[in-house]
What we know:
The chain is an alpha/beta fold. The chain has a single domain, classed as Metallo-beta-lactamase, Chain A (4-Layer Sandwich), CATH 3.60.15. It has 7 helices and 14 strands. Strands 1-2-3-6-7-8 form a 6-stranded mixed beta sheet, covered by helices on one side. Strands 9-10-11-12-13-14 form a 6-stranded mixed beta sheet. A hairpin with a 5-residue loop joins strand 2 (15-21) and strand 3 (27-31). Helix 1 (47-58) packs parallel to helix 2 and helix 4 (181-192) crosses helix 6 (236-247). It is globular.
Amino acid sequence: MKxxxxxxxxxxxxxxxxxxxxxxxxxxxxxxxxxxxxxxxxRTDTKSADNIIAHVRANALNVEWxxxxxxxxDHLSAAPYLQEQLGGKIGIGKNITVVQDTFGKVFNExxxxxxxxxQFDQLFEEGDSFMIGQLRGDVLHTPGHTxxxxxxxxxxxxxxxxTLFMPDFGTARCDFPGGSSEELYNSxxxxxxxxxxxxxxxxxxxxxxxxxxxxxxxxVGEQKAKNVHIGDGADKDSFVQMRDTRDAQLSMPKLIIxxxxxxxxxxxxxxxxxxxxxxxxxxINKL
Length: 287
């Protein structure tokens, strides 16, 4: 089946969120939503999520799933807000528990922070499947960028999160805690083993040099032939050397501190303090 895919581009974080609809009915899933965050003022806004809500309501869609491809380090998730407004179950990869354990220590969260993934409604494993109306989705575990990265293969479309970018931009960084360029190479090979005509939808785009417009849809065949990091049969050793060298020169995403604290909680803010205030932590020399 060929799902109907509507993309929502967030200019502030270069994130693409997707509404994926069963072509035979009104059921849909939302993938990788954005909660707007002004870091300098520490203020949230729901404008990006409200655009998705307006689309869902205008088309009388029924949200069955709110899916996260991984714990994002560059934007906050709006999953709880969308669930409150539209319903649906929040899902992520089972290795969220690894991410929670890692960053629970980084942010000194203490024993009150549950590290069992219970903040999410569904923890997916390799080989799991789910339904969006009559449309089947299959789950691939594709770690490397993070331990919990998942690719959702829904009909003829694969939603790869940050694992792959457009062919002219390449592949995801692997230098976050728990990341691995070797694992990323293996995960990409898993994605590229899908049929060549499989549509690939990427989670970010930054307009590679020479390209005027943002883009987020490609195919397995195009990635295999043209991806500047992994295409044309690039071998594992050369990819790992390229990726590790490149990653060593990258700075941290500007929203990594708030994003990790919120997203490892399924998009929920930390519990308020005794005065009802929500406070995020700033760990020094930890990332």
